[in-house]
Amino acid sequence: MEYSELIKIRESVRNYDPARPVSKEVLLKILEAGRLAPSAANRQPWKYVIIASNEMLAKVKTCYDKDWFRDAPQLITVVGDENEAWIRKYDNRCFIETDLAIALTHIILAAADEGVATCWISNFKPDVARNALGLKNHQHIYAISPIGYPRTDYKHKETKERKPLTAVTEWI
Ligand SMILES: Cc1cc2nc3c(=O)[nH]c(=O)nc-3n(C[C@H](O)[C@H](O)[C@H](O)COP(=O)(O)O)c2cc1C
What we know:
binds flavin mononucleotide, 7 helices, 6 strands, two-stranded antiparallel sheet
């Protein structure tokens, strides 16, 4: 798909068919887009965790209390390792969130290109998700997304609710 088309059709989907998991072949293509993402000093401080077993899905799904989230046949989380992240020496700013946001953007766009639905979720209970994945202190989950296909009755959004370009740009 043309990039200009892809960024238009990508949307946050809150409707999943629990009976239609994404094939491993398609998941690998989507994960490859995450692998190729840029990162500060090329540190690649990420790990992409696909949650697909019934046992792990049941555990992780308790971190976000929405019915549509419970329907997701698979989840993807991006886990960042703060020990691997680049820190700017001038102000000690750690760029891990930037790196992980770019990586997940690559992933959700690649998913849309494959016809796979996602929804970036940050409003989950971090401790619940961390415990479910058994993370170490220096590892953090920056986002979770369901990964799957919408039910057949799902209506795609017709327009994007966005501020007009004039309101978000400045030419100086
Ligand atoms: C950093 C970030 C966090 C988000 N967290 C949530 C969330 O917790 N729950 C949710 O339903 N959507 C979440 N979203 C999705 C946004 O609501 C959505 O991207 C926005 O409304 C624009 O809609 P669109 O993605 O369909 O274009 C999040 C998106 C981003 C980028």
